[in-house]
Amino acid sequence: MFFLLSKLLYYLIMPALWLVLLLLLAWRSRVPRRQQRWLRAAAILALVGTNPGLSNEAMRAWEIPPVKLSQLPAQADAAVLLTGVAEDKLPHDRVYLGRGADRLTHTLWLYRAGRVKRILITGGSGSLLETARTEARELDILLRMSGVPKEHILLEENSRNTRENALFTKALLAQYPEIKSLVLVASAFHHRRALGCFQRLGLHPVPFPADYRSERRKPTPDYWIIPSPNALVQWSLLLHEVLGWSMYKVLGYA
Questions:
Q1: What angle do CA 149, 151, 156 make, to 5 degrees?
Q2: Predicted TM-score (pTM) of this structure
């Protein structure tokens, strides 16, 4: 139920959806003063929601700062890789990666650089429909094709949200008492919630954020003036994450 509600909530807080609703309310309103209010609200939302500078600055403030390789321990026992980077496309005879693919490549980088001994992939399927493979299994395929030995990869394939990532990872690690130090690889915008979930359960991984959605600040007019549909997408992602983090805090998950 929690999984379904989180999916529904994502769509309900989308600025694009609210913009359409405001325009529909203005169109259906028969009271001129009320119609003007709806149109004014829609105009404000459009100006703020499509401004790339504002959305980027908000995302920059939320994402945790990058971590240099030199800031990591000499060698941790394992890197915990949160899924959410593979996409369910046809045909199912290969693996498709989405926007956050550098979570996978940065984890592989840590392994190849000798910063971690093993890789633990946590994540089942984020789809409401049945899938051919779990996402953890798909990333396992790519890591093994990249030369990581099977014995150096641990899979947790049942979790469907961040809390379960932490819960099921802790349960899996109970079978490997030799694994004590961890590096957590997650998206920078999601790292607050992920790290909070692991810490709440007594796991204290070193953060290693990847998949940054913000960009460097630009001193150019298009950064602040030219509207961009991508800004609406960025606002949707940020609002969803801030609300998710807040809910996890209230429920005591993070």
A1: 110
A2: 0.91
Cα–Cα distance for residue pair 191/186, rounded to 1 Å: 6
CB 66 within 8 Å of CB 245: no
DSSP state, 194? Answer: H
Rounded to 5°, the CA angle 184-189-191 comes to 25
pLDDT tens sequence across 222-240 = 899 999 999 999 999 999 9
DSSP secondary structure letter of residue 64: P
Phi and psi, residue 222, nearest 5°: -65, -20
The token duo for 172 is 């899996």
Q: How far apart are the first and last CA of the chain?
A: 19
**Residue 2 tokens, joined:** 């929690």
What are residue 185's phi and psi, to 5 degrees? -105, 115
Q: Give residue-wise pLDDT tens across range 132-174.
A: 689 999 999 999 999 999 999 999 999 999 999 999 999 999 9
How far is Cα 238 from Cα 244, in angstroms, rounded to an integer? 10
Q: What is the pLDDT of residue 5?
A: 67
Please report where in the chains the tokens 């609406």 appear, as a residue: 232
Phi, psi of 227 (to 5 degrees): -60, 150
